[in-house]
Structures are given as C-alpha cells and as structure tokens.
Amino acid sequence: MRSPQQPRSRDRARRRRVAAVLGGVLGLLPARAPAMPTIGWEAPAGCPSAERVAARIGEVVGGRPVSPAVTAVRARVERQGQGWLLVVGFSGRDGSTERRLTLHDCEATANATALLVGIALVGPASAPGEMPLAVPVPEPDARGRGAAETETGGEGRERAGEAGVGASERDGEERERAGEAGAARAGASEREGEGRERAGEAGAARVGASEREGEGRERAGEARAGASERGSEGRGRAAERIQGRGRAADGAAEGRPRAFVQVGPALAVGVLPRATLGLAAGLGVAWRRLRVALGYAGWFRSPARWAEDRQIGADVALHAGSLRVGPVRRVGPVELQAAIGLEFGALRAAGVGSEVNLERRTWWGATLAGGGLAWAPRALRGHGALLVQAELVVPLHRPTLLYNREPIFRFGAVGLRAGLLLEARFF
User: Fold this and answer.
1) Left, alpha or beta for 406 (phi > 0: left; psi -120 to 50: alpha)?
2) How far, rounded to the nearest angstrom, does the alpha carbon of residue 77 sit from its chain's CA centroid?
3) Which of 56, 81, 230, 363 has its CA 20 to 30 A from that of 73?
4) Handedness of CA 165, 169, 172, 177 (dihedral sign)
5) Which helix (H) or strand (E) holds 168?
6) Could you read off the pLDDT of 63-78 as tens digits, one per residue?
7) 72-91: string of b/e by CB count within 10 Å (b at 16+)?
C-alpha cells in the first residue's frame, strides 16, 4: 500500500522536468532588442531638419543593440553670438542628463547630435585586443644539468693534471728566460746611460731652439706692427677713395639739370599805392651754377584815394608773369642766388566813391634784379628747400590815375619786393 505523500512527490518532479524543458527552449530563443528612444529636434530655419538628424543617428547606431537606460532624447539649437548652441537632453530610468556644445556652423549640429546620441545608446567603440609583451622560455631539466656538471667536472680534473705537468716544464723555461732578461737589463742600463747623454744634448738643442723662438717672436711682432701701420694707411686711403667717390657722385648729381617748383607769400612796396600782399609762384630748371625760372605774381587790391575826398579813388590790382636768369653758389646746405629778369602783365584800376565809377585796364612791364638765400636741409636729400627772395622792381612805364582830370596817384619809379617760398626739386 502506497503512502499519500508519494503522488505529491511525483507531481513535483514532473513539474520540475517540464519547467527545465521550457527553460531550455526559452534560452534558445533570441532576446527582444530594446527599442530606439523617442528623439525630439528643435532648430531655426536654415539648420538641418529632424529627418536628417534621425537618419544621421541611424547611421551612427547601425545594427548594434541600444541601451534601455535612455528612453527619450530632446535636442535644440539656439543662436549664440556668431555661433550656434546645441543642447541635447537625455531622459531614462536613471534620471536626466544634458550636454551642451558651441559650434560655428549650424550644419555641423546634425553630426554632433548623432555622435552624442550614439555614445549614449551604444557606447564608444571597443578598443583592439592587447598583444602579449613577453613569451616564457622553458628552463632545462635539473637532472640534465647535474649530469652535464658531472661530465664537465671530470674533464676539468683531467685538464688540471695535464696543466700541472705542463706547468713544471714551463717553470724551467721561465728560469732560463729570467737569466736572459737579467742580461737584457744590463744592456738596458748601458743604453740608459747613452740615453742620458743624448738627453743632455737634446736639452742644449732645446735651449738653442728657445732662443731662436724668441728671436722669431720679436720678428713676428715687428712684422705685425708693420702690417698694422700698412693696414691703417690702406684704410685711410680707402676712406679717401670712398669720400672721393661720394664727392664725384655729388658732382655728377649736381651736374645733372634739376627741375623745381616754388610757391609762397610775397610783399610789394613802392610801386603800388600802398604796401600790398600777394602770391608768388614759379617753375624752372637749375644746373650746378645757373638757374632759369618762369614766375607769376598776383597782387591783391591796393587802394588809391583822392587827397581832397578820401572816399573817392580807385582800387588797383596787378597780375604779371616773369622770366629770371641768374647764377647759383652753394656752400653746404646753403645756396646764394642772384637773378635778373623781365616782367609783363595787366594792370587794372576800378573807381570807387564817385557817381560814375569807371574801370580801366592797361599793360604792365618792369625789369627785375635781385637775389635769394635758400636752405636745403640734408634730411630732404636735395629734394626741397626754403627760399627767402628780395628784388628791385623798375617799371617800364608809369600810368597815372585821374579823377575829373586831376591826378590821384602815379605808380612809383622804383619798388621793392620780398617773398618766402617753399621749393620742391626733382632730379
């Protein structure tokens, strides 16, 4: 008769067998891969679209299994100064994290987002396998080492016996050699004495060589002194030649004609009714000893008034062109100039203060004679100068201003002009 516990134990064993079979079958089935998390994308116009970002993430992840720890990804792009700010947030079972990147190009945000999401889902690429750094070498068997040592020891003792016999024979040979060495030492003593005598003679020879060396030094010193003097003379001559070349170059430069242009304010006294300001300008050509210039002088309004009524009179203006020729003398940066010339132009008088005011024009002519002092700074290297000029003016005719057939003013017989001119020179 069976006990009531036996059916229960059989049922438990049957259930265990069924569970084991199902467990084996379930173990052979592939596990369900976690799904891709939801991905959100926000970006302004002109940046990559959400479809492009999702496609790029798919290329990075590929067919590898993704981590179930990340359930949602949200990325947005914002303008930041001259660049773009990329913010990628990850949400999952472990909480939320955020990554921020600043990029110069909005197109690069798609690749950066795919890279960050790929690292979060599948991790970085695995490193290659390590290589062994050493290979063990097996040691020889201990018993083999003992046998080899025994054989080596026997051969060593036999060689030691033979060495003892050979040593006796060599001992006798060494005694004979010692006797020969004694005789050789005696000969060496005699040769040593001869060497001392020769050394004494060599010392005397060295003394003589020292004296000759001293004489050679004295002669070398004299030769160096002579060479120094000759070198000084050579340097002096070279300096003179260089200076001569510089003077020759200056002379050649001075020998070439130079064009110049000048302009500046001027003052006229004596010919016009009153001291009058004007503007002087000119251009010309200069050689080493001669200058030729064409000039212009314009004198501003100079009033002439009737003695009986100072409100009645005329305003006089003069414009004239000139030709001047003269020698030049240079002393360093200073130039002394002299010139004579002729001047021709137009003289205009406009009446004022009368009931009927008339305007009259006539020709103007004068002879010029004067000179100037020019300073050409070395810093300008001959391309500019400051000129102070003064000259006498002698009119070729002297018009008279009339009011009601009564004279108001007659132009002067001699006048003086002065000017301060800036001169530019062209080689």
Assistant:
1) beta
2) 41
3) 81
4) negative
5) helix 142-255
6) 888 888 888 999 999 9
7) ebbbbbeeeeeebebebebb
**Tens of pLDDT along 320-331?**
999 999 999 999
Bridge partners for 269 per DSSP: 416
Measured between alpha carbons, how far apart are the two ends of the chain, in Å? 146
Distances (CA, A) of 206 to 200, 202, 300: 10, 6, 102
Contact 348, 316 (CB under 8 A): yes
Chain position carrying tokens 């049957």: 14
| Helix, strand, coil % in the chain, rounded to nearest 5 | 40, 40, 25
Integer Cα distance of 192 and 181 in angstroms: 16
CA separation, residue 161 to residues 154, 168, 169, 389 (Å)? 11, 11, 13, 129
3-class secondary-structure state, position 156 = helix
- Are 118 and 61 in contact, with CB atoms under 8 Å apart? yes
Structure tokens at 419: 């000017």
Give the number of other Cβ atoms within 10 Å of residue 244's Cβ. Answer: 10
Please give the angle made by the CA atoms of 336, 345 and 425, to the nearest 5 degrees: 35
Mean pLDDT in runs of 10 for the chain (427 residues)? 51 58 43 73 91 90 84 91 91 88 90 90 52 34 40 42 43 52 50 57 53 66 64 62 51 70 95 93 94 95 87 92 95 93 94 82 95 91 92 94 85 94 90
Integer Cα distance of 195 and 201 in angstroms: 10
What 3-state DSSP class applies to 223? helix
- The per-residue pLDDT for range 261-279, each reduced to its tens digit, is 999 999 999 999 999 999 9
Find, among 318, 300, 296, 290, the residue nearest to 421 by Cα: 296
Strand order in the sheet with 38-42: 38-42, 70-80, 83-92, 95-103
Instruction: State the number of CA atoms in the 13 A half-sphere of 305 facing the CB.
Output: 9
Q: pTM of the entire structure?
A: 0.42
User: Which residues, 6+ apart, have CB-to-CB distance to 349 below 8 Å?
Assistant: 304, 314, 315, 316, 359, 360, 361, 401
Q: How many CB atoms lie within 10 A of CB 68?
A: 13
